[in-house]
Amino acid sequence: MTDEEIFTVVRRNLMEVVPELEDADIRLEHSMRELGANSIDRMDVVIASQEDLGITVPSSQLASVDDIASLLEVFGRHV
Amino acid sequence: MKPVGIEAVNAYCGETCIDVPALFAARDLDDARMDNLMMARKSVALHCEDAVSFAVNAAQPIVDSLTEDQLAGVELLIVGTESGIDFGKSLATYVHHHLGLPRSCRLFEIKQACYSGTAAMQMAAAVVAASPREGTRALVISSDVARPVPHTYVEPSQGAGAVAVLIGDAPVVAEFDHGANGFHSYEVMDTCRPTPEAEAGDVDLSLLTYIDCLQGAFGDYADKVDGADLLDTFDLLAMHTPFPGMVKGAHRTVLRRTKRLDPASIDADFDRRLAPSVRYPGQVGNIYAGTVFLALASALDNAPIDRETRVGIFSYGSGCSSEFYSAVVSPASQRAVRAMGIQEALDARYRLPVEEYDELLSATAELAFGTRDHTMDLDRFPHILRERFASARPRLVLEAVRDYHREYTWLEAGR
Q: Where is the Carrier domain (chain A) (predicted)?
């Protein structure tokens, strides 16, 4: 799976929990917090994306993730 | 096997509180994040209150209700806390003394973040179950007093409160399902208290770990209990509630993941089975060790209970250890909880204006961990300490520290 495909999954889940977001608003350097996702929303995105990608990432690996690029990087190690 | 469970429960959530919207406004926090908390108010400890005085004030009405013989049967006192006051001497020693418990009693303090109350309760239940004597009882108190960290998003949920539960073989309030306990524990650095004043950690990791543990602990429960189902087995749920929004989020995620429920059905299920349990926590904030019992008491007070009802209980403590277990409650349980007047006490708290709240935090900070000698100014905040305590039942407060020994006094009418 390519980075772009992983990004598509994350973007789709993010837009589901923060409906005000447009596709083009979401860029790699953004943190989900900057995009208006609260802590519960962020948890939703992280869990739903793992399900869609068919992966299970140990929570501790997600601890230092602060922007979308690093989230994709962690997911990329597991697909 | 004799029945074992909770014979009595009471909560003490302090004399003062602050409105969460007022705190958000004063700290210039983003209002959008307030809905996420689902909190109206939080309890605040007075400068002369600590985890000892909170514990005693929670348990005193239960102890008062016991006959002399019943009191003599209390052979275990455990206090669960992450607000310790000494590395060696447990705060259970002070609690034991001020409650007037018998000397023929084990006592100790226990720590595992917010799981400590459940750890204590399960040890107590095991002692009662194993006792060859009828009427063996254990008193378990979960007591924590936050040191709020101003200008952070955790500040609005950092509360103060203690919950006392009497465990015995006449469990009017809740009878535990024997052997129905699922566990899930592993090392993770989600949140911690590295110093007496600081709370450190990663909120996102804590949420993910909580969900992980809810699924893991329930999975272990379901392995042990034939046919257990998260949706059908429990009429009510009560979960560790750092803030109600977290419980709502965890419930939503787990049901979507494991049951493929649509959002409307998930909301309806939350309203029916979980909303009664978050009513008290939404007025008190996170009280750490006691939060899961506060949620249970809230469910018992606020849910319609017209027959025997099974409650699923989930306890989580950062670091981490967790447990899913269950108990049966009845209309008599509801009557017993309501008789303690917990909601009435919450309604009667003094609402602190923000300036006074800040003044109180400064006053509290004057007594640092490890102080050898200190005299508490009990004439400070007279409109709270003098006026309110004059009309309420007596309350224990910290009066002084002399050569490290903590000295407490009962404030009551006329004093």
A: 4-79
